[in-house]
Amino acid sequence: MNAAFAKSSDYVGHAVAAIARLIREQDLKPGDRLPAETVLSSQLQVSRTVVREALRSLAALSLLELGAGKRPTVAKLDDEALCLMIDHGVMIDQIDIQQIYDARRTIEVRTAALAALRRTDAEAIQIIAHATAMAQDLLVPDKVMEHDIAFHLAVARASRNPLFALILGAFQNVTRETWPIGWRSRSSDAERQAMNALHLELAEAIAAGNPQSAAAMMERHFDSSLKALVAAGII
Amino acid sequence: MNAAFAKSSDYVGHAVAAIARLIREQDLKPGDRLPAETVLSSQLQVSRTVVREALRSLAALSLLELGAGKRPTVAKLDDEALCLMIDHGVMIDQIDIQQIYDARRTIEVRTAALAALRRTDAEAIQIIAHATAMAQDLLVPDKVMEHDIAFHLAVARASRNPLFALILGAFQNVTRETWPIGWRSRSSDAERQAMNALHLELAEAIAAGNPQSAAAMMERHFDSSLKALVAAGII
DNA sequence: TCCGCAAACCTGTCCTACAGGTCTAGGAAA
DNA sequence: TTTCCTAGACCTGTAGGACAGGTTTGCGGA
Lengths: 235, 235
Known about the structure:
two-stranded antiparallel sheet; 2 strands; disordered N terminus; mainly alpha; DNA-binding; homodimer; Arc Repressor Mutant, subunit A
């Protein structure tokens, strides 16, 4: 299927491809169990070692879930694997903070609009709750940060497009590292309260089902964050 | 670092975390070599089996590159791993085509604008070349498709944000499967020529360095594609 | 100083073994 | 008859040894 997994005499690569094909052809869904390692081993005509390494590869991408005593199980995607990838990309200077910021902005303006259109009432309440909590814990940066991150993820989930939630979730680690910089760059309490107020207005636009307003608010949020970072000389 | 890799007595998970930490703490860059498996094995106090499975996990995410006789080397991210993940998400109905379409639209409107601002002359020429080639091979759908995909990826690369190229690249496989549907849904040659004309106009807007126009063109492109698919009853 | 080669090094694969977790068939109890 | 429970079968996680063949390195010669 893919070049990197297809070098001739790359047994593990072939096994990965074969197992991925197996999932596809048998139309397996999350929770469904694959054949045992020894069975795969004899079916694919490779050692159990090779099968195990192939299974690990797929588990790393969270296509599979492995567990002692349990047969390999088809899994749902989650953002952990992607998170590791993004972190690595930043580490090796393949991606910089500004690029992540731009990607977030691009996507989050959309998730805000979609969330306004599609959020359930429960989601609206949750989003407002995070925005409110940010204002309440104004003196405890760690709490503000966690609510901020949770706020944005809640919006992403409310957009009803799991791709957005997946991608934005993958930025979490990076955000956790850069967030305090943004916080410190807002030197006065007034600025910090203004940021929180913006979150709350955004939450209310989403709750009110107003996509234009939600998108505009999200744009303003990113504009002001970016301005704060630039002012602090970070970007 | 991550929950899924931290279950106590999950040796492989610990090894993955330790190796990822190693890369981070030593600030290794693509091409740099890690210690040999046996060295890692004794440093981490686990068997070579465990080390190998950990290395495979990281290689699956393309954080590492493995090769017979070669020590593990730090790698650049590429879209293959992400591609497998997206394909799987579609397979298990976690993601549907429309959601991918919306993600693409959201991101590609941005890449079009950025490409107009940042493209090099060589990139502008290449983008125009793909658009031209689409029109030339109008009777050979496969060729049109490949140029279409290459066109969009070239725009993504010209945006100078590797995240966008990474994400859009991951949609390639899905696009290859759905593209022919869109093609067939444009029943007349006139419609198909109109689509190609739109690509060419977009390419020219990017070459002319006009971001507003490029973004608007990209929006029109997605609107008309979506309309064609809806008309065909696909979405 | 440069080149080439042999030895040292390293990975890919296979095998065996066993501890301990999980599942299931079938018997016991209600 | 149905439900519950358990013993045994099944399965994975980890360890360690072996060897083929690819890669790197440092030595010796030109």
